[in-house]
Amino acid sequence: MDTINQMCLAALPGYAPRGTRDRAGQVRLSLAELDAALGTFIVTVYNNRVHSETGQPPQALWEAGGFLPRLPERGEREQAGTRCWPTHITCSRGPGPRAVRDRCC
Length: 105
Prior knowledge:
The protein is an alpha+beta fold and 105 residues long. It is 32% helix and 13% strand. The chain folds into 2 domains: 2-64, no CATH class; 74-104, no CATH class.
């Protein structure tokens, strides 16, 4: 979220960082305008800039088929002593994403 906040939202009209008095009163965009601005940012800027961890833009990884992490094969999981892995991840406010369903072999 920091990337979106720093690279996209901060440049939009009416941006009011945490601690701004009357943040709600600073609103300048409709939800449709905000949606359009976020979509444009993600498609044209974020997906085409080099990611610090992968060294490649997300769009290039997607097109090359390497966007999703490789799940370990069954033998690798058994050697590691784990037999379950997440099949569905959800994001919510809190410490981070969490697995909500596990698949066991």
